[in-house]
Amino acid sequence: MNQEIQLISDGDGLAVIGHPDAVERFLSAEGLPSKDLGLQRLGPSLSAAAGITQAGSELAANSGRWVKLSKESAQLVDKWGLRTSSKTGLSSGVLKGPSGQIKGFVEFSTKGLLTNPAVLAGAAGIMAQLAMQQAMDEITDYLATIDAKVDDVLRAQKDAVLSEMIGADLVIEEAMTIREHVGRVSEVTWSKVQATSMTIAQTQAYALRRLDALAEKLERRSSIGDLAAASKDAESTVTEWLAVLARCFQLHDALAVLELDRVLDTSPEELDRHRVALKVARGRRLELISRSTAHLLTRIDSAAGTANTKVLLHPASSRAVVQSSNQVVTAVVDFQGRLGIEDERQALEARRWLDAVTEVKDKALETGAEGVDAARRIGNGTLDRARSVTGKLSGEIATRTLRRRGDEETR
After folding, report:
1. pTM as predicted
2. In contact, 279 and 199? CB cutoff 8 Å
3. What percent of the residues of the chain are helix, what percent strand, and what percent coil, each to the nearest 5?
4. What distance in Å separates the CA atoms of residue 29 and residue 67, rounded to the nearest whole number?
5. What highest taxon heads this organism's lineage (predicted)?
């Protein structure tokens, strides 16, 4: 039995390819949960590619599993010493060992699936799809957690852009269902969904404008009474617009999954470039959302600061501003984490901090004037922490964007 394990990493996930028994032993030894990679899908789609006849038999004989890269599994990728290609941006390598034990790293391999560019590009395309489907599932969990009925939010709006979003949603979900049953995206299916991208983009832009409007409303209020009212308005509506944004992002990912299937069918030689382009576009959508939510957090911080300066004269209103601010911060930080805008550790720490703040603040407020002072101090700490997390996040995204663009220019 062939004991080689071929590994491919695109930064979001890890593909483990080899004999089914060897793959299973490797994943079990490393304690990695995985999903079926679906390599067999590449056979028909790449039938016209050079060398696919031999590669096709290898695809049939091998198993492929996909692992989402967490902080821990990413460290394992470093341990295995995968080599990154400047051309594709993918990290790959081969592990092998006697008696079924994977012990060493082989930097170069003259045979196997990784040496076939068409198969490598196809595998990377499937990996991108699995990563986006994983993100879609996480957004579904997020919407269920906040009990947000996105369709209800959309139907409650009279704006034509939002009402059109419902139709786009139904069309894309239908296409994903057909893909799941048929195993591919036909020309007929693609013709139904390709025009929905504009609708999703318009809805996303509208939701971002609404969040910006909430921030500006907070910025314009000078009296503590008006500020308390604006903060309460933000508390009651921000979750709804974050839910709409999350659904837009989810549908963009679904479209990208369908799009990669279509390119794989019609222009497999373009698949790798298309995969990279979709990843760049996805990153830019995240940047837009990051900037808007960071701006909202800044304005909430400012509102809390104003409340702090007037806490003695207006204790009730100041307390209301702090309470609403904490709720908005909780919602925004959780939203950012679910979309993967910030790393898992930062999101977890922020949520734990906010949970603790809520518990302590509620108890402190029962003690009257002392409670007001406690709420003021706690609100300050919470908002400063959230702003710090968001600032680091925006800087990291900007750095990654500049680095990515620099890499593209040198190719």
Report:
1. 0.75
2. no
3. 75, 5, 20
4. 14
5. Bacteria
